[in-house]
Design goal:
Elements lengths: L3 E10 L2 E11 L4 E5 L6 H9 L6 E6 L2 E2 L10 E5 L10 H12 L3 H14 L15 H13 L5 E5 L7 H18 L2 E5 L3 H7 L2 E6 L2 E6 L1 H6 L4 H6 L4
Parallel strand pairs: 3-8, 3-9, 6-7, 7-8
Antiparallel strand pairs: 1-2, 1-4, 4-5, 9-10
Helix pairs in contact: 2-3, 2-4, 3-4
The chain binds adenosine-5'-diphosphate and magnesium ion (MG).
Magnesium ion (MG) binds next to helix 1.
Length: 237
């Protein structure tokens, strides 16, 4: 569960091709990192996988099923954004519970899942607080908790650590790697931070100008960059 295939995905905005015939296989349980310079199409690709943006062409296949026409909530995907997107007037508990309430889940199930997420993310003592009283790292944990309770097959992260300072980013890199091991879910993680890519990824996808410049394990990209762009961006020229 959580195998993703992209088949010749494109996205055009007017006459501009932001994503150009991208094909990719993401394995079940894989931690896949998308890197590349600003504007190369990382967020657009992620938003198409999530269903927040239509594709202009190509197929998105999850566990053997084409999902292009499925609503975001039906895809078994949860997305975490850089900006947290929490509800300021709700407690941490209610923020994490929110997607389950929308689904109309029973109270006992909500409590069980929210408590479990709180335990995984070390938020037990924060449950009655409002997001405004939390640090940036804690807020991002709440946003991750809200994704966890949905028990998605695939987690999508769009630069989740880029609002945090360097020390917190280092802590959260370790936390997210631990979370991936613990949950075993497929994770697709967008960043422009090479350290995050090199330390967290099973495989890295290097994007440039809407196309894939190279896909490979971190050390493979580092030691055997396929072209000058990859060498300059991540490799060891
Ligand atoms: P990244 O996340 O890699 O920085 P994006 O996926 O956000 O890049 O954007 C890729 C390209 O598509 C950029 O040139 C951006 O300006 C353009 N783009 C993204 N969204 C839109 C939109 N809604 N309308 C027009 N152009 C867009
Ligand atoms: Mg982006």
């Amino acid at each position: 569960m959580g195998q993703l295939t992209l088949e010749k995905i494109t996205k055009t905005f007017g006459t501009f091709e932001a994503v150009r015939s991208v094909s990719l296989d993401v394995k079940e349980g894989e931690f896949m990192v998308f890197v590349g310079p600003s504007g190369c199409g990382k967020s657009t690709l992620l938003r198409m996988i999530a269903g927040l943006e239509n594709t202009s062409g190509g197929d998105i296949v999850i566990d053997g099923k084409r999902v292009n026409d499925l609503a975001p909530v039906k895809r078994g995907i949860a997305m975490v954004f850089q900006s947290y997107a929490l509800y300021p007037h709700m407690s941490v508990y209610e923020n994490i519970a929110f997607p389950l309430r929308v689904e109309g889940a029973p109270e006992a199930e909500i409590r069980r899942k929210v408590d479990e997420a709180a335990r995984i993310l070390h938020l037990e003592t924060r449950m009655n607080q409002k997001p405004g009283n939390l640090s940036g790292g804690q807020r991002q944990r709440v946003a991750i908790g809200r994704a966890i309770v949905r028990e998605p097959k695939i987690f999508l992260f769009d630069e989740p650590l880029s609002n945090l300072d360097a020390a917190l980013r280092a802590d959260m890199r370790i936390e997210l790697t631990r979370l991936h091991k613990q949950l075993g879910s497929t994770m697709i993680y967008v960043t422009h931070d090479q350290v995050e890519a090199m330390t967290m990824a099973d495989r890295i996808v290097v994007l440039n100008g809407g196309i894939i410049a190279q896909v490979g394990a971190p050390l493979e990209l580092y030691h055997k960059p396929q072209n000058v762009f990859v060498a300059g961006f991540i490799g060891n020229p």
